[in-house]
Write a structure and sequence with these properties.
Elements lengths: L3 E6 L10 H8 L3 E4 L5 H4 L7 E4 L11 H13 L3 E6 L9 H10 L3 E5 L4 H8 L13 E5 L12 H7 L2 E5 L5 H10 L7 E6 L7 E6 L3 H8 L5 E5 L9
Parallel strand pairs: 1-4, 1-5, 2-3, 2-4, 6-7
Antiparallel strand pairs: 7-10, 8-9, 8-10
Bound molecules: S-adenosyl-L-homocysteine.
């Protein structure tokens, strides 16, 4: 019998934030293919006898190329296995989950998707930041701080600033100077509250509070590292949650 791939969102790290459906899929897996950002306590839920394939990094510390991951998924499912493809947060938010499902679909492999709780909202929430608030912002914009290989960052900062909504940048630690510079250059007030949440929902979570003008300095002082979110918006520090 042909197998199947279940693409599961593992949530932002706290094992309590894995969905009931995701946990059931994981516990029934014969093969688990997982990423770097899946929390250790969630990895501990993998069945003992399951084949575990880490595609988050290789010996050279580079992630396994996407094409190769797609091939592994297709091969394991064709071999008749019940495969869980485990990804941090929600698989479709900057997780390349869509690309993987396209490959499975093209190969005629049966698949299912189990959404996950995204770090974009949950890591902010655990950091005490509601991403919208009736008094301060009425929209949320989630932006990647990573450019395509060999290309500059392509963010329409003017459009983002005009929304007056909450801005959440993922994968933005390395590009922090460009992000801050882009927002200031597009006319955003340097006093706008800005924060970072590092290792959100995990035991080592830290929050860095600043304004747009001071965010880079504060982040450097605190040595904020990936994974971290950058949140920019009026509700930070005003909404008390
Ligand atoms: N699909 C994931 C995001 C993948 S992009 C999701 O829905 O959450 C990876 C980026 O997500 C990281 O660079 C970081 O910006 C953010 N991220 C993931 N886990 C995080 C965590 N626990 N705390 C803060 N940011 C996190």
């Amino acid at each position: 019998m042909p197998g199947k791939v279940t693409l599961v969102g593992a949530g932002p790290g706290d094992p309590g934030l894995l969905t009931v459906k995701g946990r059931a899929a994981l516990e029934g897996a014969e093969v688990v293919v997982y990423d770097r950002l899946v929390g250790p306590e969630i990895l501990a839920l993998m069945p003992e006898g399951a084949k575990k394939i880490d595609v988050g990094k290789t010996a050279s510390r580079h992630p396994v190329p996407q094409g190769q991951i797609n091939e592994v998924l297709v091969e394991e499912a064709r071999a008749g296995h019940n495969v869980v493809r485990l990804k941090g947060g929600d698989p479709f938010l900057f997780g390349r989950g869509g690309e993987e499902l396209e490959a499975l679909s093209a190969a005629g492999v049966d698949f299912e998707e189990v959404p996950g709780i995204t770090s974009a909202i949950a890591a902010a929430a655990y950091g005490g930041i509601p991403v919208t608030h009736r008094n301060y912002s009425s929209s949320l914009h989630i932006v990647t701080g990573r450019a395509k290989a060999g290309e500059p960052l392509s963010i329409d900062f003017d459009a983002l600033v005009r929304t007056r909504g909450t801005l959440v940048f993922l994968m933005g630690v390395a590009a922090l100077p460009e992000i801050v510079g882009g927002l200031l250059g597009a006319g955003m007030d340097g006093d706008t509250p800005a924060a970072m949440v590092e290792n959100g929902t995990l035991p080592g979570q830290r929050r860095c509070d600043a304004t747009l003008d001071t965010l880079e300095t504060r982040a450097r002082e605190m040595d904020i590292q990936s994974p971290a979110l950058i949140v920019v918006g009026e509700e930070i520090g005003r909404a008390h949650v």
